[in-house]
Amino acid sequence: MSFREGTMSTAIEVENLVVRRGKRAVLDGFFCAVPQGSVTGLLGPSGSGKTTLMRAIVGVQTVVSGRVTVLGHPAGSVPLRRRIGYVTQAPSVYADLTVAENARYFAALHRLTAADADGAVDAVGLSGHAGQLVANLSGGQRSRASLACAIVSRPEVLVLDEPTVGQDPVLRDELWGHFRRLAADGATVLVSSHVMDEANRCDRLLLIRDGALIADDTPEAVKRSAGTGDLDQAFLTLIKRQELAAA
């Protein structure tokens, strides 16, 4: 697959973003930037604000204040509708259609061919299940069907909310290989996870905890900053530093 070429070095910019749920601030004055043509990992424990940030980037999250810009446009604006792909944690495909029918439906929305749809299904390792109803797939297979529908349009920005959950190690490795190929073709891939062993596969990391960004750098730089060669330990060290600074 090939992607339309962009001209900006930064694909996503988040500035002073505030999101509240009730009286609680999920994100409070949040800043970050995601380089174009990269695989950026958004990592942190459950409840840290990862999904909320991704929803804001896609443009489906109600925000109190701040600015989110994607490919030079406000998040959620009309020019981005065909340029951004989003895969939620819950599979977003039609259960009463086959894998191939789902992919071909989304391809048709973008005036693409059945061959494009079949290529996306093959890319996520589901060509052997293309004729199966989504309702009869395993949870991991449904997640991959959702991914096929998201990548069929060749989006310039692909936002993936924990796409490897429920996948076996072989399939997880294949998916990460595909993410890297997408980035090599010019796409910007933002992947959330709470599994630190996946962080080393990224070009850059955004480590988030309790709605605050505690690191924004390459995996190697994050480990050097924490004085350890282990990312799990690095994350814990950075958390302790944050707590001491706030005390």
TrEMBL record:
The keyword NADP does not apply. Pfam families: ABC_tran. Keywords: ATP-binding, Nucleotide-binding. The keyword Nucleotide-binding applies. InterPro entries: AAA+_ATPase, ABC_transporter-like_ATP-bd, ABC_transporter-like_CS, P-loop_NTPase. GO terms for molecular function: ATP binding. This is Multidrug ABC transporter ATP-binding protein.
